[in-house]
Amino acid sequence: MDKTIRKILEADIYDLVQETPLTKAPRLSAKVGRGVLLKREDLQEIFSFKVRGAYNLMRQLPHAARVRGVITASAGNHAQGVALAGQTLNIPVTIVMGVNTPAIKRDAVKARGAKIKLVGENYDAAAAHAAQLARERGLTLVPPFDHEDVIAGQGTIGMEILRQVRGPVGSIFVPVGGGGLIAGVASYVKALRPEVKIIGVEAEGSAGMTEALRAGRRVKLPAQTLDQFADGTAVRQVGAKPFNIARRLVDEMITVSIDEICAAIRDIFEDTRVISEPAGALAVAGLKKWVGQAPDGAEGQDIAVVSGANINFDRLRHISERTSFGAKTELLLGVTIPEKPGSFLAFCKTLGRQNITEFNYRYFGEGDAQVLVGIETGGSQGERRPLLKRLTKRYPVTELSDNELAVLHVRHMVGGRSPTLESESLYRVEFPERPGALLNFLEGLGGEHNITLFHYRNHGAAFGRVLIGLQGAEHQSKALARRLQSIGYRFWEESENPARDLFL
Prior knowledge:
Layout: H1 3-9, E1 22-24, H2 26-32, E2 36-40, H3 51-58, H4 63-68, E3 70-73, H5 77-89, E4 93-97, H6 103-111, E5 115-118, H7 123-137, E6 140-141, H8 148-164, E7 169-175, H9 180-192, E8 197-203, H10 208-215, H11 240-249, E9 252-256, H12 258-272, H13 282-293, E10 301-306, H14 316-326, E11 330-338, H15 343-351, E12 356-361, E13 368-376, H16 381-392, E14 397-399, H17 404-408, E15 424-432, H18 437-445, E16 450-457, E17 463-471, H19 474-486, E18 490-493, H20 498-503
Parallel strand pairs: 2-10, 3-4, 3-6, 4-5, 7-8, 7-10, 8-9
Antiparallel strand pairs: 1-2, 11-13, 11-14, 12-13, 15-17, 15-18, 16-17
Helix pairs in contact: 1-8, 3-5, 3-8, 5-6, 8-9, 9-11, 12-13, 12-14
């Protein structure tokens, strides 16, 4: 018998871990045209599957190691699993977290008696500090994914799925961060039901397993480009053990966008009335995208692992705003209309009885006027095409639904352009979000640039987003880009973005 399978079968975790239900998702099934089941790991005591692996490792520690205590580095859910396991087993726990870890996850860990150390702005910095403390104090390091007992604990999800499901199974969709979950699920399922497809799902900006399988080796994603939206799976490098299992047993990887993740959060809510965290909704987002690309798919029901529901309430506004774009149920358009009496009414008549979600307009001067309009659609191209055809017959139209500058910033700040401004460069920047973050950003920017435009919204996420305009010659613009790069901020120059040309 394979060692991983044996460890999964021997995982004596059910005095603490819940055997979570495998529930039908009727609305989602109707939407994708296939039977969909959700493995509800959001119903664990810590609202995440992570307790399985942590408890499976810690329950096997000898007495001396338990007395000394354990330590781990985590973005949050693994930390809660370790804290709960420590509380249950009476083991002292120290958690090292990045300084931008959401408050809901920090508070949950503290409530279970664990000590918290906030170090660094990413997982790598926290992990390095945890490893150092483990060596110095003789603590047992509990890895979040790269350990055979952690993988076996997560693998009990696969065991439960095969025990619970009735009828044929086509594919199981699994969110991927460091790879422990998909390694465990794939190990068990492929041993018993090799015909079932195992499909991993990652966020587009943190697709470490996708890149590793493509390269045939583990790769380390650049910290500057690592997207933190799905913070629970934002890992720069997958584990060695999970990678070795995944390269043998995972059938396919698929990546999804932020908007697709947000739409999946709504899909889960509509069937369960539970709000998943972004990482927890990855599998559903991947399932929807995969079915859309291969509608025939494999024969049988499809299963998505809903891996967690630890989300800051403050993030819901941003997620709600993005959901309609991910579901393709809203169009965001930039439309040029004549700046003269009656043109506004004529434009609205052209729209007809469409449900308008937003309408932004500001007088700029004689000539043409720019309107930013959001229009609700049914999500199908069949509804969008006639509307766009009707509009483009009369007006210049720019579709902005997939334009990050427009979605994140412009729709909240339409106000017209300055007729006297020259030599402006526009940048969209992300920086670690924490108290004082905006001040730190401006101090890092320095005071030698003339700021011509500034827009910032706190989304309750791990990273803040700023749109900034700076006046100066080309060499000053390049100097700014070098400064942003040197301090490790992700940034995009948006000076040529059509949304900027229309509205800013």
